[in-house]
Endonuclease/exonuclease/phosphatase domain-containing protein (Daphnia sinensis), 374 residues
Amino acid sequence: MHPPAPGKNRFDGQPDMRIKENRIWAEKWNQKIPLSSGKGYWQSKQVTNRGTGNATEDKEKDKEEEKVKIKEEVAVVENKEEVIGEEKEDAKEEKEEVKEKEKEEMKEEVKEKEKEEMKEEEKKEMKEEVKEETDYAKATGANIQFGLVNARSLRDTKSNIRKIRKLKKLASKRDIIVVSETWFTNDPNETDVINACPDEFIPVHEPRTDDRKGGGVAVFYRESKFKLANFSTTHYGSFEHLDISLNFGTDTRQIRLIMIYRPPRNRKTRQTQFDKGDFLEHFKDLLNNAQEEKGKLLICGDFNLNIAKPDQYDKGFLKLMEDHGLVQSVKKPTHTGGNILDLIITKQSDSLVKNLTVGNYFSDHRFIHFEINI
């Protein structure tokens, strides 16, 4: 079937039939479309192409709209994620704030607990002071009030502030304070010694001679009652000691005071620099020299010998005292371990020691109060 030739129209006078025919031709060949316009019966396929172009533009437009829509959806999702992130951050910050608040509350609780503990400690100290003052008030017929203690350091440090303050309070009711383990050094300015010395007292001390930490012995005596008559610097390897003679005021009466500190065995090696056998030999030599002089003799300090449960060397020490006519006066434990480590030794014939009291703990050792009459 072919399209009608130009110039001929078998549907003249029948416009509806012509239009129908045009549609049939357009559907069949889709190449040329008959037109009813007066400009020509046939039109190029460009008309159809225009229709196709409009469809492509519509598709492109739809794609753009779809892209915009997707971008909007992505933006919404990103916005939600940002909001969720902010909420998480806020929750994290809130959690941190809660933790900080809990920490502060715990710190306050610790501070309050420390305050309560300090109050209890102060109450305990007050009770101890009252007891010590009572014991002091009970003292009768004695010339000299003594205090003996292993201090475990009187260095001028923050941790020793209360200890030094307590020593000065104890000294205010006594005439002589004898201290082992001062931990003083060879500082030429003697800052630690000056700081620890009670008011109205004179210090005499002997620091540890080697580089090992600790040790050292000291005597603090009341300036208004005593004058230093002699000071010996003899050294014994197995123990540290201080040997002084004090005149009692302007009187001719004199007392020889020997302060002893024998270091304990090393906790790691379970040994001392010198064993007990060396100590017994050195101490025997000291006693022989001390008894050659006249006057009252007082030997005291931390011997680190357990005379409550003596071994063969401790028994040798007790026998040595007996052979030299000496007596030991402390009968109660002086250390946290339940041992009698701090000793007070005098001539049996003198009967010097009176009103001896093993008091409260000053360090890991108890403070010992006693009196002597010379």
Q: What stands out?
A: The radius of gyration is 54 Å.
